[in-house]
Amino acid sequence: MNTNKVWFITGASKGLGLALVKKLLANNYRVAATSRTISALRQNIPSFSDSFLPLEMDITNDENVKASIEKVIAHYGQIDVIVNNAGYSQIGTQEELSDKEVKQNFDVNVFGLLNVIRHSTPYLRKQRFGHVFNISSIGGFVANSLDLVFIAPRNLPLPVLVNLSPKN
Questions:
Q1: Residues 6 or more apart whose Cβ sits within 8 Å of residue 27
Q2: DSSP state of 102
Q3: Using CA atoms in the order 53, 56, 59, 64, what is the torsion angle rounded to 10 degrees?
Q4: CB-CB contact of 24 with 31 (8 Å)
Q5: What is the largest CA-CA distance in the chain?
Q6: What CA–CA distance (Å, rounded) separates 61 from 148?
Q7: Contact 9, 83 (CB under 8 A)
Q8: What angle do CA 14, 18, 24 make, to 5 degrees?
Q9: How far is CA 43 from the centre of its chain?
Q10: How many CA atoms lie within 13 A of 126 on its CB side?
Q11: Residues paired with 52 in a beta bridge
């Protein structure tokens, strides 16, 4: 098992992201983990080591995402695995949710993911290696009217991966 790989995980302060970070660190991988606040990461991962780089990142802020990825490269010299996990559910029917609520959800769940891909892909292409995992939702296969605003943006990025295939 090659534990020299560097993992970059968004939305790492709770849920699936936090579980993944803990598992990877327990297996001696190098992990850069993002959250909206460093304190959320410190609270859930109390013992920081050289293998762990906690980053405060606003996934909706393109420049902030770019700077975070640059910090990973400066710290580890590489980035090998991207896990786009950041996101949130917005429960409500279409007529119940405001325009602002829907746009904010798309900003995080679609455009935030695209910000990460946009700024990490040049490094992956330069290395000629890397993996991108976009965490989606089962709702793309089993929809429910109350989850439409969550399901649509969480499953929309799936075609984006086709564009990430290696180029000759």
A1: 1, 3
A2: H
A3: -90
A4: yes
A5: 50
A6: 24
A7: yes
A8: 180
A9: 19
A10: 9
A11: 31
- Token reading at 42: 């410190």
SS3 (DSSP) at 104: helix
State how far the Cα of 130 lies from the Cα of 7, in Å rounded to an integer: 10
CA 112-115-99 angle, 5° bins: 35
From first to last of the 168 residues of the chain, give the pLDDT tens digit. Answer: 566 899 999 999 999 999 999 999 999 999 999 999 999 998 888 777 889 999 999 999 999 999 999 999 999 999 999 999 998 777 777 778 888 988 898 899 889 999 999 999 999 999 999 999 988 766 555 555 555 555 666 666 555 554 566 554
First to last CA, the chain: 28
Which pTM value belongs to this model? 0.86
Is residue 34 a contact partner of residue 10, using CB atoms and an 8 Å limit?
yes
Tokens matching residue 110: 């679609």
To which residue do tokens 């996101």 refer? 87
CB proximity list for 34: less than 8 A, separation 6 or greater = 8, 9, 10, 11, 12, 55, 56, 57, 59, 68, 86
